[in-house]
Amino acid sequence: MTLLRIASRAVLTLHPTISLLNQQKANVARWVRPTLMEIRARKKKLEIKNGPQKESPRSNFIEWNYDAEIYAFGIRLKEKFNYTLLQQAFVDRSYIVQEEMKQRSVGVENPSLNLSDNSALAKKGEELITEFVISFLNLSLPKFPRDGIKAIYRHLVSDEVLLKVSQSIGTKDLILSSNYPPMNDVYVATLKAIIGALFESSGEARAYEFIRDFICTQLNQVDVNELWKIENPMELLKEICKDKKLGEPEPRLINNAGQNTILAVHYVGIYANKKQLGTGFGENIQIAKEEAVKDSLRTLFQTNNNMKPFNFRMPVEKVANLLKKPALAAASVDNI
Amino acid sequence: MNHSQFLISGFLRPPFYNGVGRQINQLQRLTIKFCKSHGGSKGMRDFIENHLVNYAKENQSVVVYVKPRRHRSPVIVAEYLNGDRRWMSAQNRNHEEILKWLSLLSLQAGDTEPIRYRKNWHTDCPSIQGPWTPFTHKNPAFNNIAFPDKELGKQLNMPETATEKLLRLVQEQKNTKNE
Amino acid sequence: MSITQRVQQWATFGRVWHVYDCSYQNPFDSAKVIVKYLKGMQKPIYHPMNDCGDHVVCINTKQIALPGDEWTKRAYFHHTGYPSSATWTLAWELHSKDPMMIMKKAIYRSLGGNLQRRHTMQRLHLFKDDKVPQEVLDNITNQIRQLRPVPQRLDHIDQEVIDNFPKIMDYPEDYLPKAIK
C-alpha cells in the first residue's frame, strides 16, 4: 500500500515537470494517464479487500523526535512548560494500558512504564476553564441573565469546540493513545491537561491567558443569543419589564408590505409605556412578534448585533480579581 | 470559459481565528531531504552549512528534520497544523533560493491553493447600523393614509404659477394697506 | 442561518407596492420613473442581478395626457405575422380601444431589452380608472409623486373662490364682446 502511494506520488510529481519541459504545448506524456489509472485501480482493489487505508501515525516515521516536537509545541504556543508535565499531558490512559499489555505479552510480569496519564492534569484544567470562562462571560456580558451565561459556557466547553481548539494547536501527532488518529474525547482531555500543565509550570495567570486566547476567542463573530434558546421569550420579557418597572410590553404593527401576497413582510414593534423596546420582521405577524420580543430582549441584555465585540485582550487580573471575591465566584461557578 | 485560467475567488479565512487571541505559527514541521554527493543537492548542502542553524534558531516552533539520502534529488516537505503536507523539489536550487522558499513556507497557513481575495478583510457582522429594509427611514405617518392620496401624489418643487403670484401680490397689498 | 437572520433577509428583499396616479401625466416621462421602481433602482441594495423590484399600481390610465399633437401623429405598429397584416394604429384610436395600452407600451419600451423585461412587467398593475380591487389596495403602502400638476377645471372650483378672485376692472353691463369672425 505504502509502495503504491509512493508510486502515485512519483507520477504526480513527475507530471508537472513533463509539462514544464514542453512549454509550447502543454502535452502530458502518453504513459501518465494509463499509469495513474492502473495505480488507482489497484488502490481501489486493495481498499475493497482490506477496507479504507489507515492513516499511519506520524511518530512511526524515521524523521521523528518526540522531545523536539514537545519543545516546539511549547514555543509555538509562546508558553514555558515544565517538560515532564507537558509530556504527561499528552499521555492517555489507553496508551499506558496498551503498553502494559504489550510488555505482558512478551513475558514481563510486573510491567512498569514510568508514565502517568493526564487525568489529574485534565481535571485541574477543567476547573480552570470553568472558573475563567464563567467570570470572563460575566464581565463581558454584564446584563446577560445567568441562564444565558450558562448556555454560552456550555457551548464553549462542549466537545465540538474544545476538539477544534485541540486539533488546531497541533496535538494530533503528540498524543500518546491506543488509537491513531486519537478519539475525540482524548483530544479534549489533552487540551484540558495542557492547561493544567501550564498552570503547574507557569502559574495561574498564564493558564488564564491561554484559556482567554484559545477558548474564549471561539466566541469571535458568534451570535451569543443563538446559543441560548429561550423557551417563552414573551414571558421573560414581561418579567424583566416588571422588575425594571418599564410597564407592560405590548406588540404593535408598525409597517407592512404586500400584506395580501405570499411575499408579505410585517414589521412589529414592542412598546412599553409608549417607548419602543425592540422591533422585528416576519412573513406573518406571529413570527414578527416573536422576533420583536427577541430583539427587545437583546436590547435589554446589550447583546444586539451591533454590540461591542468581546474584548479578547482583557487583562486576566481583572477576571482573577472577580474570582477572588468569594461570594461572586461561588455564585457564578456553583450554578453551573 | 476555461476555469483553470482564472484564480478561484474567496474570502479571507485564517485558520482557527489565528491572531484574535494570539498568533500561532502554522508551520509545525520541516523535513529537508538531500544527497551528500550529487550536484543537484549542492544548493541544499550549502543551505544546511550556512543558514539552517540560523533558521532553526529563528523558528523554534518548527521542528526541522534533515534526512540525507543517497542519489536522490533534494526535497523540502513542510507540514502544517491543519494537517496539510507540502512537498517541494529543491533540485538545482541555490542556497539563497532555498532560504526564500523556506521563509515563504513558514509564513503560510497550509498547502493552500492561491485564491483571489474578494475583499482584503472578512467579517460575519458587516453592518453596525443594521441592514437596510424598505421600512428604514419611512415616515410613520404613512400608516394612517388611505392610498391613493391626493396630497401625497402631488408633484414637488413646481415654480410659482401666474395665478398663485397674482393671489400673493394681492395679499401683500392688502397687508401693507392694513398697516 | 438563524430565524433572525432569515427574517432580516426577508425584510430587506420585501416587495413594496407603490401607487401612481396617471391622470394628466405624460406616459413617456412617467414610464421612466415607474421603471425605476419596477426594477428596484430606488433601493440602496440595487444590483442588476438582484431580484429586488417593487410592484407599481398605475391608476387612471384613461386620463393620461400626450404632449403636442401626439394623439393624432403617434402610430403604434403591429404585425400578426401573416402577409400584408401590418397595422398602424394612431394613439387616439388605440386609447379608445384599450385605455391601458399606451401606458403599458410606454413602460415596456423604457424597461430596455433584456430577458428580465417580461418578468418585471408582471409587477406592473394597470387600471383605467380609480376603481381598484380592495385586495390590491390593501397591499399598497407607498405613493409615487406625479411629474406635473393636475390642471384644475373651472367648474370644479368653488363659486366663492371665483367671486373673490382679484380683478382690476369689471366689464360694463352693456359690454358686447367683439364678434368672432
UniProtKB/TrEMBL annotation, chain A:
In terms of Gene3D superfamilies, this protein maps to: 3.30.160.20, Ribonuclease III domain
Record domain RNase III: where: 73-203
For this protein, the record's CDD domains field holds:
DSRM_MRPL44
This entry carries the following GO cellular component terms, namely: microprocessor complex; mitochondrial large ribosomal subunit
Where in the cell does this protein reside? Mitochondrion
GO terms classed as biological process: mitochondrial translational elongation; RNA processing
- The domain of life is Eukaryota
Which keywords annotate this record? Answer: Mitochondrion, Ribonucleoprotein, Ribosomal protein, RNA-binding, Transit peptide
Residues annotated as signal peptide: none
Instruction: List GO molecular-function terms, semicolon-separated.
Output: double-stranded RNA binding; ribonuclease III activity
Entry annotated with the keyword Transmembrane helix: no
UniProt keyword Ribonucleoprotein, yes or no: yes
Which family does the record claim for this protein?
Belongs to the ribonuclease III family. Mitochondrion-specific ribosomal protein mL44 subfamily.
Classification via PANTHER family: LARGE RIBOSOMAL SUBUNIT PROTEIN ML44 (PTHR11207:SF5), RIBONUCLEASE III (PTHR11207)
What is the name attached to this protein's record? Large ribosomal subunit protein mL44
Q: Which organism is it from?
A: Chironomus riparius
UniProtKB/TrEMBL annotation, chain B:
List where in the cell it is found: Mitochondrion
Annotated GO molecular function terms are:
structural constituent of ribosome
Q: Does the keyword Transcription regulation apply?
A: no
Boundaries of every Ribosomal protein/NADH dehydrogenase domain copy? 36-109
Q: Which InterPro entries match?
A: Ribosomal_mL43 (IPR039927), Ribosomal_mL43/mS25/NADH_DH (IPR007741), Thioredoxin-like_sf (IPR036249)
Q: Which GO terms describe its biological process?
A: mitochondrial translation
Q: Which UniProt keywords apply?
A: Mitochondrion, Ribonucleoprotein, Ribosomal protein
**Signal peptide segment:** none
- Please verify whether the record's keywords include Ribonucleoprotein: yes
| Predominant place of localization | mitochondrion
Superkingdom field = Eukaryota
Similarity field: Belongs to the mitochondrion-specific ribosomal protein mL43 family.
What is this protein's name? Answer: Large ribosomal subunit protein mL43
Species for this entry: Chironomus riparius
Which lineage?
Eukaryota, Metazoa, Ecdysozoa, Arthropoda, Hexapoda
UniProtKB/TrEMBL annotation, chain C:
- Please give the InterPro entries that the UniProt record associates with this protein: Ribosomal_uL13 (IPR005822), Ribosomal_uL13_bac-type (IPR005823), Ribosomal_uL13_sf (IPR036899)
Q: Which UniProt keywords apply?
A: Ribonucleoprotein, Ribosomal protein
**Keyword Ribosomal protein belongs to the record:** yes
Q: Record's superkingdom?
A: Eukaryota
Q: Molecular function terms in GO for this entry? A: mRNA binding; structural constituent of ribosome
**What is the species of this protein?**
Chironomus riparius
Q: Which Pfam families match?
A: Ribosomal_L13
The protein's name: 39S ribosomal protein L13, mitochondrial
The record's GO CC annotations read: mitochondrial large ribosomal subunit
Task: Say which family it is in.
Answer: Belongs to the universal ribosomal protein uL13 family.
